[in-house]
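Incident log, structure service

09:12 report received: a user says their structure output differs between two submissions of the same chain.
09:20 pulled the input from the user's history:
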Amino acid sequence: MNFDNQHVWHPYAKIPNDVPTYLVESADGVYLNLNDNRRVIDGMSSWWSVIHGYNNPTLNQSLKDQIDRVSHVMFGGLTNQPAIEICKKLIEITPANLDKVFLADSGSVSVEVSLKMALQYWHNKGLRDKTRFVTPKGGYHGDTFGAMAVCDPENGMHHLFMVTMGILLVRWLSVTLKMACIIYSLMFCLNIFFQIDQRLGIHQKLCLTLKKY
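09:34 re-ran on a clean worker, output below:
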């Protein structure tokens, strides 16, 4: 742990860090088993990525089966059957007019792709000046450059990046389902980025392309 403290730079931390970093030896269900024999609940679900729990036997077996065939292959010009199957499932559970899937490797990257697709869409339509984005007050969309640019500059930690894009900040927006794309585990990337926070019952994340004034 001394090496970790001196040489490993963790997210949202300094080197050396002011707060302790805990060593996880194993995990199961909602629990993390630390090296000091403590067992704690991971309430953040590893930044919302372990929604089915740690050491899920079905997921573990799928990973083991897949790695014996091929662990990874780029998606540019290539495809694979598991990717085809997950895209089929996503299309089955979304409205009929949402029948295209772009796979991204993280939430932040999905926002980046959404922003680029939005700009590309209007560029292809001949509206090259339509480059402004609207983002809700209090919104947080990730830590990559474009995602930080559409975070709340007042209450967020990424205000320095607002200068990179034309941003219009609003308190909240409501749009029809026909204009929205609900983001699942593997996010859809369209010219509208939309995620519902079910705990609050409001539209917590929304990135909607507007015509530049």
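09:41 both user submissions now match this output. Likely a transient worker issue. Closing.
09:42 reviewer note: The chain has a mean pLDDT of 76. The chain has six helices and seven strands.
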